[in-house]
Automatic annotation (TrEMBL):
InterPro entries linked to this entry: Cyt_trans-like, NadD/NMNAT, Rossmann-like_a/b/a_fold
Role of this protein: Catalyzes the reversible adenylation of nicotinate mononucleotide (NaMN) to nicotinic acid adenine dinucleotide (NaAD).
Annotated GO MF terms: ATP binding; nicotinate-nucleotide adenylyltransferase activity
Superkingdom classification of source: Bacteria
Reactions listed under catalytic activity: nicotinate beta-D-ribonucleotide + ATP + H(+) = deamido-NAD(+) + diphosphate
EC number(s) from the headed UniProt entry: 2.7.7.18
Family: Belongs to the NadD family.
Keywords: ATP-binding, NAD, Nucleotide-binding, Nucleotidyltransferase, Pyridine nucleotide biosynthesis, Transferase
GO biological process: NAD+ biosynthetic process
Protein name: Probable nicotinate-nucleotide adenylyltransferase
Pathway info: Cofactor biosynthesis; NAD(+) biosynthesis; deamido-NAD(+) from nicotinate D-ribonucleotide: step 1/1
Statement: the UniProt record of this protein carries the keyword Nucleotidyltransferase: yes
Domain Cytidyltransferase-like, chain residue ranges per copy: 5-162
């Protein structure tokens, strides 16, 4: 099976993430897309980072009816911060029969040289990149890249957290279940 790994903080998961993941799962040679919830991005410090178990639960709620999408908490048991190359190495050992590719936005790919052992990452793993406005994909020596033209929404987790703090509605920016669960538990207030 060929699996696309979509790494992120998902703080919280929103429909921008869901549209990308589902589109890529059905419009490339991938069989499945796994949302890998990262406890701690090495390059992002956030005072509003919700506990990873809650973020994982929100992802599970968001994709519960999606056949080709799955949530993974594999990084919860790995050292922090969450270095993607270490997770990939661990996953290759744990799932030797699966073929993994990495999914990322062109904004993240722009910064890839700041990632731990990025040469190893781009040498050993294909990267499926979806272009984000204002972030054209530049050729990268040695990288096995595939560009996917997926529909884009200009929304972000940080904008959603801000709306909640201001007491505004986040309806339609996240799934109904996710909205309800965030409200019931008072997350991000
Ligand atoms: N609107 C969007 N459409 C598609 N992909 C997105 C969108 N927003 C973020 N992503 C991508 O999803 C992955 C995980 O993103 P992340 O969890 O950081 O969400 P975010 O909305 O960018 O969060 P934040 O606003 O907190 O930085 C990253 O690869 C990021 O490029
Ligand atoms: O491995 C690295 O050095 C590295 C550097 C920056 C980001 N990442 C990962 O990239 C993913 C995107 O993070 P985020 O917070 O933008 O959703 C997340 O899984 C991070 O752990 C990984």
């Amino acid at each position: 099976m060929k699996i696309g790994l979509y790494f992120g903080s998902f703080n919280p998961v929103h429909i921008g993430h869901l549209i990308i993941a589902n589109y890529i799962a059905y419009n490339t040679d991938l069989d499945k897309v796994w949302f890998v919830v990262s406890p701690q991005n090495p390059l992002k410090v956030s005072s509003t980072l919700l506990n990873e178990h809650h973020r994982f639960h929100l992802v599970e709620l968001a994709i519960k009816d999606a056949d080709r999408l799955k949530a993974s908490n594999i990084e919860f048991s790995l050292p922090r911060p969450s270095y993607t190359i270490d997770t990939l190495t661990y996953m290759a050992e744990k799932f030797p029969t699966q073929e993994f590719v990495v999914i990322m936005g062109s904004d993240s790919f722009e910064n890839i040289t700041r990632w731990k052992n990025y040469e190893q990452l781009i040498k050993h793993y294909p990267i499926y990149i979806y272009t984000r406005p204002g972030h054209p994909v530049k050729e990268s020596q040695g990288a096995n890249i595939r560009i996917v033209d997926a529909p884009m929404l200009d929304i972000s987790s940080s904008a959603i957290r801000k709306l909640i703090q201001e007491g505004k509605s986040i309806r339609y920016l996240v799934t109904e279940d996710v909205q309800q669960y965030i409200e019931e538990n008072g997350y991000y207030r």
